[in-house]
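Cross-posted from the bioinformatics board.
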Amino acid sequence: MPSKYERFKIETKPAPHVYQIPNKFDVSARKVRLAAMLVHEAFEYKLNKEVVLSRPCIYGVFGGRFGGFKPLKHKCVGCMRCVQEYPHIMTVKHSDSYKRLGDSFWTPEAVFTILNEASTGKIPVKGMGYKGAFGGEGFDGIWTDMSEIVRPTRDGVYGREYISTSVDVGRKPTSVDFSKIDRASSTIEIPVPIIFDKLSAGNGDVRAAVGMAAEKLGTFYVSRERTPFDFGQESLIPIGNEEGIEDLVERPPAIVEYDAEKSDLFEKLASRLPSSIVIARLPLREDSGMIACKLAHEGVHGLHLYADYHGQDYSKEPQHISASLKEVHQQLVKGGLRDQVTLIASGGITLAEHVPKAIICGADLVGIDTTVLVALQAEFRGETRDRANCQLKPRKIDPEWGAQRLVNLFGVWHDQLIEILSAMGIRDVRRLRGDIGRSMMDAELRELSFKGIAWAT
Amino acid sequence: MGNLELIVEKHSERIHHGLEVLPNLRHGLPEGLGNKRWTAELILATYEMALTGDLPKNGLEYKTGNSGGGFDVLGWKNNGSAKVESDKIDLSIELNKRDDGKKITIPLPIYGGGMSFGSISLNFMLARARAAKRLNTFMSTGEGGYPDDIVPYRDHVITQVATGMFGVREETIQYAPIVEFKYAQGAKPGLGGHLLADKVTSEVAKMRESSMFTSLYSPFPFHSVYSVEDHKKHVDWIKTVNPRALVSVKVSTPTDVDMVAIGSYHAGANIIHIDGGYGGTGAAPEIAKKNIAMPVEYAIPKVHDYLMSEGVRDEIVLIASGGIRTADDIAKAIALGADGCVVATAEAIAVGCTHCGNCERGRGCQVGITTTDPELSRFIEPEWGETRIVNLFTAWSKRLRSILAGFGLENVRDLRGRRDLLVRYK
């Protein structure tokens, strides 16, 4: 515990892109028409160079030596003024390389959002209203609630009453046992409800960046192999197996996961690592609720439920992680077990808004995966859905740079989580867990509000 | 004429010419223009209506966007030919349904939403005020204060009282036929206003009694209101300062928006104004625009039905905003249960906005709408802007009349809550 009170804040600083990112817009001029226009204007304005060469762009796209003949495409923000002024000469469109970004799940806009969050450490703030699809599947079909007149108040980004984003990981007793009251807590507090999940791919530099970032942030990262680095060891959540138990006993981790589908290691891990929190790692399927209840009855401290990287579970008829999570959460609630175990959710949690929405659906905290690689400028070479064959290939990076990018990402997501919580009038992210009543579902609202409206024939 | 004058004149003329030429599609549909909500066709159709005062005749889509939900998946029942003569149709609505207080009627079920001085240029603000006067409707100051230049239009200007209290003075409340409390804004529900530092020029800072080039984040919520009783004190305060003023309460769309509405009614409000999550803004965190609070399409029936069930529906005016882009959106909102609508982004589109979303930046808008830059502001001449906004609303009124005529309705008030006239598309 710090000796004096300090409000939790993640210190961000710029970590610019190392690999060039595509220009969002492609601006071009029909050169012959441009030349003709310049001649025309030269006559019209009697060779007044300043007027003739004043350009229809306030962002400097035509500020280069060759003006519109060689526009500075990276400066274009798509405002379209050049097209408005000279529709017969200018064309602005989304660039092909921008449109190629991502895959069937990761939209170019989502990739750009993560790249910019990791680079600047600042919340994206823009003018004009929302531009996208009305609702959608999964997290896109969920709106969080707000409250018109409640505390905590908000006086600017940092001038608000304190909102806690801390969560506890570990098993909680159902009642106070006074004989054990002097023992250390069996849970660990993490200042943000986000950990780094196991990455599909990664070189040593990426692993080092993740370890360093986890250490700086006071969070954890899941990995099958122990890193050979000095930093980040305390933040590691190893995935234990039968053969590796002795290694773990030598250096007991604070939290350990095991593949609950492949082995029944809980008893062994719990007895050999009495100070560690033992989490069962499970793919989300139609029977996950039942299995979660069984494991919780057996005494596991937490469950890490994962979907594929596009957020679809592994049921015969896959559904979105938001739906599967709700089912598991509700079964645990019905079984009277929910408050005893920690639920970590991962897979398809790729944008800041997915964190509160996953928590509303029942998770205590989330694990992020492909987003980490995107923030570190990994390359999309195909579909990223399959955990075993994810086509997101890490590039060579400087671990210090990578760690700062990830710290920035967490800082921005933390601030955005606070925006959501403050709008809802919630002071503690722990109170958001499973609070479906503070969310609004597109499918439900549509049926309620459009009730009685006939279908078009 | 100095070079600066010539440069402003040159670009101003070019932009205005472009707005005339683009909708005829001679140069095709600009590829980079628009998005799912405001499609390129919808933007160009709005330019066309603002130019001609009539509906587009070249096939441009002017009724819906392409967002895949809400208004965009609602249509009208096939109603055959017109059953009422268009010119006999009454589009007016009352803004005060209570027995006491001044009666105000507007000839169209539309008035202009809050856009603050600082977030938009003074010239655009003047264009809106002039248009409101000509149409005998209203526009709202937004929360950035009440510039002296709009005082001549005060009979058509709504004074907004928001959490920052910028420019809220006794005289600005006394000017106002309607005072609007902004509890929340659809684009950033629960977060208060944002005006980023670059746009806080000396004039803006003076108006808001703040420091130049310092970001201004309005508080949230009103620190004097934590209950309906507190809210009633607010309403009483306005009615004491200006007993003639109607009170509008602008709120966002939380899950209990129906309770908020009934609370406002009991506090004495004349208008409950619900601003859905897909509304416009000069600057807002992107996370707030998509994810917080429900779209207005879902909130309108919820509020309308609840006010009906409480037996007070005919004593309070329900105004909807937040994503109202077209005349069809207005008619659909009314059919869902609203009395009328507030629009703001559409007015900006009418004078050349491309919905590019760069309003928050340093110099702000490239065509002089959402800017405090003195040079860029001059692209919007108030008279020119007024004409375009009036034209847009004139074209919309033609479309509204055509919808009503098809259903044999002589009064827009008879459309309210007529969900049976709508159809849903998958």
